[in-house]
């Protein structure tokens, strides 16, 4: 027992008479990084909330033979099944911290990062708040602590925001850090930086870490031990050998390839105007397009001299790191961003850009009105564009149970919400769909199933697809052509089959390396 910081025996968690975790054991040793792997909806995040006592007791029921946390050289320190609120407050203040999945929603948008970090030190009644904040920001790898201290979250990159979240988590000097999908929304190079930082902090601060992720490659690389969450329980990899992620991915692909393709039920029933008339015709032509935000010293150039042609029926992949201009390009193509310079040509006599170009966003939860059912959200678009398409048929096309029509967004899984997002853009009868990091927050199996749906939309409906991603694996799986963006420039452009050509730019090769490329899957 003396080497354990966390020891849970026979844990069960249920909600509304549904079992989420069943008779499971879980433990963490002092100074250990335990990787907790599982697909979306498997209960990983529920388990992390249990560890911090954040489950709503009116909804969730928890039981265990024991669920103890220990301090070094001491006996039982805290019982995770305690009911006392004051005990929980002390435990969360002194011993455990949680790093959430999405830094954008973890931080308060109307407070500076310094105010939010300083709030922790204030509550802990520690003097010299600003000095401590700046030192901690420097410790988590922020190059300009003073600037970040005075910045609002929206002024920072994804990687910087996640470093601020980690700094807030470390401010109370915890012994146990729970990192719940800490890199899901980040590009591969930034993922590596953040995870290297967590490992470095683990050593310097003598932390124990529970690293939760649906990325098996990541879990294998950064964890001392892997625990798989499957069938409502933990299956420990006791011999500490990496879980075979290639076999896992191949198993997923085989399941998806052999699964009956329900979305081919009847294209005629959708009542969509076929985009075949635009196939191979020049749809968009961008010449020397540039885009900047802000003024004076705060001016930021997102895109520089972009020259790009997109034909009807194309499936174009746009890859690059954070801040490379991928989303800005997508917004221009959809007509959302019109303050650019240069020329943007399309045939206005054949289609309206506002009506015909649609975008599927990264976070489906934020793109839905939480007060509307998902069926109402789709029906709203049908009425707006007068497309006379059935909501039920759209749900069937994207392989969703029609019983979900009357559900609210928070009642659906991430994959289900993203399928509803796709159904909603199809409701406008588009000619082009821009997918902006639309699968990055999903588990591997759900990613592949969504990619299969996008492929079907592109090939069977002849709808032009622009697929924006920091994951070159997904782009290779889906797209016919690829452009690579770096600091607002297109630095590489090629057909997908030439991805591994010796002519590829150095940065493209770096993206391939950072992505742990799955060519052998």
Task: Report on this structure.
- There is one protein chain.
- It is built from 19 helices and 20 strands.
- It has 521 residues and is of the alpha/beta class.
- The chain has 2 domains: 4-242, P-loop containing nucleotide triphosphate hydrolases (Rossmann fold), CATH 3.40.50.300; 257-280 and 313-335 and 347-514, 3-Layer(aba) Sandwich (Rossmann fold).
Can you give keywords for this protein?
Rossmann fold; 35% helix; alpha/beta; six-stranded mixed beta sheet; 521 residues; 2 domains; 20 strands
Question: How do the helices and strands line up, and which of them pair or pack?
Answer:
Elements: E1 4-15, E2 18-29, E3 33-37, H1 44-51, E4 60-63, E5 66-70, E6 76-79, H2 85-94, E7 96-99, H3 103-106, H4 113-123, H5 129-139, H6 145-149, H7 158-170, E8 176-180, H8 188-205, E9 208-213, H9 216-222, E10 225-230, E11 233-236, H10 245-258, H11 267-270, E12 282-293, E13 300-311, E14 315-320, H12 326-333, E15 341-345, H13 353-356, E16 357-360, H14 374-385, H15 391-397, H16 414-426, E17 432-436, H17 444-460, E18 464-469, H18 472-478, E19 481-486, E20 489-495, H19 506-514
Parallel strand pairs: 3-9, 3-10, 7-8, 8-9, 14-18, 14-19, 16-17, 17-18
Antiparallel strand pairs: 1-2, 1-4, 1-5, 5-6, 10-11, 12-13, 12-15, 19-20
């Amino acid at each position: 027992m003396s080497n354990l910081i966390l020891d849970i025996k026979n844990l069960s968690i249920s909600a509304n008479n549904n079992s989420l975790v069943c008779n499971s054991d879980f433990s963490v040793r002092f100074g250990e990084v335990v990787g907790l792997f599982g697909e979306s909806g498997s209960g990983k995040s529920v388990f992390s909330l249990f560890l911090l006592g954040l489950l709503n007791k009116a909804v969730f029921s928890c039981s265990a033979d024991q669920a103890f946390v220990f301090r070094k050289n001491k006996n039982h320190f805290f019982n995770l099944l305690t009911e006392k609120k004051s005990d929980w407050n002390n435990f969360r203040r002194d011993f455990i911290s949680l790093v959430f999945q999405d830094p954008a929603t973890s931080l308060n948008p109307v407070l500076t990062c310094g105010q939010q970090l300083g709030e922790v030190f204030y509550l802990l009644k520690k003097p010299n708040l600003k000095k401590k904040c700046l030192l901690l920001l420097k410790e988590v790898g922020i190059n300009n602590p003073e600037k970040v201290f005075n910045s609002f979250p929206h002024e920072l990159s994804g990687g910087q925001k996640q470093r601020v979240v980690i700094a807030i988590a470390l401010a109370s000097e915890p012994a146990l850090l729970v990192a719940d999908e800490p890199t899901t929304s980040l590009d591969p190079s930034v993922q590596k930086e953040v995870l290297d930082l967590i490992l470095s902090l683990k050593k310097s601060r003598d932390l124990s870490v529970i690293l939760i992720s649906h990325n098996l490659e990541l879990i294998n690389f950064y964890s001392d031990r892997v625990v798989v969450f499957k069938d409502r329980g933990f299956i420990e990899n006791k011999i500490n050998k990496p879980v075979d992620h290639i076999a896992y991915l191949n198993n997923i692909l085989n399941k998806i390839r052999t699964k009956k393709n329900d979305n081919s039920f009847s294209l005629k029933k959708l009542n969509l105007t076929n985009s075949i008339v635009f196939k191979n015709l020049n749809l968009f032509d961008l010449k020397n397009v540039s885009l900047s935000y802000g003024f004076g010293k705060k001016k930021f150039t997102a895109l520089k001299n972009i020259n790009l042609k997109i034909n009807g029926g194309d499936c174009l992949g746009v890859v690059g790191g954070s801040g490379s201009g991928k989303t800005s390009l997508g917004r221009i193509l959809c007509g959302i961003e019109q303050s650019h310079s240069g020329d943007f040509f399309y045939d206005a006599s054949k289609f309206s850009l506002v009506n015909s170009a649609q975008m599927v966003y990264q976070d489906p939860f934020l793109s839905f009105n939480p007060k509307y059912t998902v069926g109402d959200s789709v029906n709203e678009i049908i009425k707006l564009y007068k497309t006379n398409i059935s909501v039920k048929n759209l749900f069937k096309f994207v392989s969703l149970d029609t019983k979900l029509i009357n559900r609210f967004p928070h009642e659906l899984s991430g994959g289900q919400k993203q399928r509803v997002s796709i159904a909603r853009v199809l409701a406008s009868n588009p000619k082009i769909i821009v997918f902006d990091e639309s699968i990055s927050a999903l588990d591997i199996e759900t990613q592949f199933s969504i990619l299969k749906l996008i492929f079907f939309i592109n090939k069977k409906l002849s709808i032009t697809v622009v697929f924006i991603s920091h994951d070159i694996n997904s782009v290779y799986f889906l797209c016919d052509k690829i452009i690579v963006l770096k600091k607002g420039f297109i630095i590489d452009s090629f057909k997908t089959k030439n991805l591994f050509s010796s002519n590829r730019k150095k940065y493209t090769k770096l993206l391939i390396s950072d992505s742990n490329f799955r060519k052998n899957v």
